[in-house]
Amino acid sequence: MGGAAVIDGKAFAAGLRERVAAATAAFTAKAGRAPGLAVVLVGDDPASQVYVRSKGKATAAAGMAGFEHRLPADVGQDALLDLVRALNADEAVDGILVQLPLPRHIDENAVIAAIDPDKDVDGFHPVNAGRLASGLDGFVPCTPLGCLMLLRDRLGDLAGRDAVVIGRSNIVGKPMAQLLLKDSCTVTVAHSRTHDLPALVRRADIVVAAVGRPEMVKGDWLKPGATVIDVGINRVEGGLVGDVDFADAATVAGAITPVPGGVGPMTIAVLLRNTLVAAHRRAGLPYEMDAL
Ligand code: NAP
Fold first, then answer.
1. Chain segment 126-174, per-residue pLDDT in tens
2. pTM for the structure as a whole
3. Is there a catalytic annotation at residue 55?
4. How far apart are CA 160 and CA 186, in angstroms?
5. Which residues contact 16 (CB under 8 A, 6 or more apart)?
6. Atom 13 in ligand 1: residue holding the nearest Cα
7. What gap in Å lies between CA 165 and CA 191, rounded to an integer?
8. Mutate which of 54, 124, 169, 271 to test ligand 1's pocket (most atoms within 8 Å of Cβ)?
9. Residue nearest to atom 30 of ligand 1 (CA)
């Protein structure tokens, strides 16, 4: 193990959840109702069940109202769309999250597009992707927003820093790149067709790895002192590992997130934060915490 500081996402997320809980109590007192988060789970994928359960627990712990909707794996797309429309119209619901992946017979894009963009606390709706790209207020996907919070906390002002994002998914890579650009980083987005990835990564002050390949990023890919955010969650024999070879990278990096305990815990904390923001916007109340 080298000299890199370990970025404690678990502790940061716990602090964020405490701040959200305090602001939720204040919202509930003012608005006369708690912020509401509806979570829709289709089918019985074990990983999705675990995520939905922990989202439900975190919602209750923050003092929010949770509405869980479980549909069978063979539910028709129309029935799912009807549920989404009912949640759009439900005054008690501020945020709607449809747990992905959906069964193959359902068009994920059609379901995401049916969610009211102002209740889209996952930030996956094309309107919110467009708002992010255009610098307008909207909802930003939880995992990259959590990464940005960790980076700002560690580095302060990000302006002028060279950032490389490895991965270009709509859920992580692309919104991460947009957020870093908004914070005035010089951003490069790498993907599976990128030539000489190690040389590219070696230029970066900030590296965000969101690939899904166990321990791909090595220590000798890094600029000494770089800040490394590892989004990867890969199940291998012996447990969970990230997309970065932690022990090797920690000998070169200035700071690095561990897996688990780095980016992972941030996702649900930011989901609660987004739900609280949605509740304030819908109620016409000002909200300043962690403003973006
Ligand atoms: P994804 O949709 O599979 O995207 C992976 C990206 O990595 C793609 O853009 C792909 O390039 C790129 N890639 C694949 N092989 C590569 C290579 N050899 N070199 C460079 N780039 C390569 O995955 P995702 O949803 O973004 O998730 C990425 C990782 O983050 C996964 O391990 C996932 O489990 C984890 N994750 C964690 C959280 C959390 O912590 N809460 C949330 C979401 C995701 P192409 O576009 O060219 O195919």
1. 999 999 999 999 999 999 999 999 999 999 999 999 999 999 999 999 9
2. 0.97
3. yes
4. 6
5. 149, 266, 269, 270, 272, 273, 290
6. 192
7. 9
8. 169
9. 232
